[in-house]
Amino acid sequence: MKIRVKFIFSILSIIITFGVILNLSIRHILIIRMETSIGNSLNEIMYSTREAIKYRLLATELEYEKDSLVKESNYLNRYISSNFQCTVEISDTDGKILSENVDESFREILNSGNKNAGSGTAIVNLKYEDKKLYGILSYPIFVNEDNLGVLSIIKDYSEVYGENNRMLLFITVVEGIILFFIFSLCFFIITKVTKPIITLTEGVKKVGQGDYSFYIDAHGNDEIAILSREFNSMKEKIKEQINTIKEEKQKVEKLEKSRKAFFDNVTHEMKTPLTAISGYAEMINDGMVKDEAFKKRAIERIYLESERLHHLIIELIEISKGLSYTTEEFKDIRIDKLIDEISDDMSIKAKKYSMKIIRNLESGIVSAQCNRIRELIINLIDNGIKYSKSQEYLYINGKIEGKKYILEVESMSGVIPKEIYDHIFEAFIKSNKYSESESRGLGLYLCSEIIKDHGGSIDIINGEKVTVRVDMPLSIK
């Protein structure tokens, strides 16, 4: 639970508790005051009616008799009811009713009052009925120290009761308004006090999530303002330290990436010319070459690839020492002629796998780095041969579409698993389903990087027949 909610809930609980206690106390005081007022009113009525009864009984008889009350009961009933706006019951000492005009709903409380009044004590009772209030007075009638009976008076005090309730309602409303203003003031103060704390908490969370742009605008010299300013200072120091750590991390990662990329490329760059050398050498060694012209061409090819490998090793050594970095120039090349030449070279390996390379090439000129494009094509054909399930044909198609030259290498390699296909152009992606342990992904990763540098793209159409599609921009004259 938030601190502001805790404060507000606590203040609200205190205000409600205080309001209820205050209201109940005021209610109790007003009721006591009202009942006391009614009791005083009934006492005055008792004194007045007692004197009226004595005067009537003594004035009507020159010689007083005990049964005078019986004779005058009806007159006294009418007189008291008329002058004091009440209902009356007069009974003798035996409880016999001599005269009455009261409602029967008061019978039980009247009997109780008459019984107590018969013992010589005046009794006052109050009866609350819905929104009405009645005062019941019962007292003994004494004349010349003779107890003649009991007089019971029922007077309606509903107007007094209603006025008391209206007063209580007014006080409750005023009390509610006052408490509401007190609560509003407390809410304002609590909000003002806790807002910087909430802001500071949010700032700590932001910093914890790596967001250092959060700033706390602190005013004043109280403890919270000082804490906010110290937080801003601490945040800036943390930001500086984190940035320093990130910069150092990036340097280390860049260095490691460069080192790894260098050794990956060393392996693959050396592999490319060795493929041709190994193929021709194996063919000559096995005595498979009978044609002297082809044999001469194979020896020349071995020599050229050896020279290329020699220059490559020298260049890689120089790069590793940091002495030089060679970037091959872009030149216009007959891409169909280059593909045809590489296909002839790779036919040797294809025969080893009992396969034949079928070419269908349109003539086209592209601006490219010849050695890198050669490496690209060799990798694509090499993959097509190695991973083909069918020992029949490898199809190489070259065509012009718009301003691009499209190269497609088709092989019956079978469906590439999804976990491999989704990351096929990442480094060192390979599947255990293939018999050879070579990486399927490093070659394609390098192919992807090469074709990107040439402004083209590479894509693989997956299925039982796998098609690798490469597009390169045609040279613009």
Offer a quick outline of the entry.
The protein has 477 residues and is an alpha+beta fold. It has helices spanning 3-59, 68-84, 107-117, 158-208, 223-285, 292-321, 335-352, 370-386, 418-421, 440-453, and strands at 87-92, 97-100, 123-129, 132-143, 146-156, 331-334, 356-361, 365-368, 393-401, 404-411, 457-461, 466-473.
List the defining traits of the structure above.
rod-shaped; alpha+beta; 3 domains; Heat Shock Protein 90; 5-stranded mixed β-sheet; 477 residues; Beta-Lactamase; 5-stranded antiparallel β-sheet; Helix Hairpins
Task: Please explain how this structure is put together.
- The protein has 477 residues and is of the alpha+beta class.
- It folds into three domains: 3-171, 2-Layer Sandwich (Beta-Lactamase), CATH 3.30.450.20; 215-325, Helix Hairpins; 327-473, Heat Shock Protein 90, CATH 3.30.565.10.
- 59% of the residues lie in helices and 18% in strands.
- The protein has ten helices and twelve strands.
- Helix 1 (3-59) packs antiparallel against helix 4 (158-208), helix 4 (158-208) packs across helix 5 and helix 8 (370-386) runs antiparallel to helix 10 (440-453).
- The relative contact order is 0.06.
- Mean pLDDT is 82; it is low at 321-326 and 432-441.
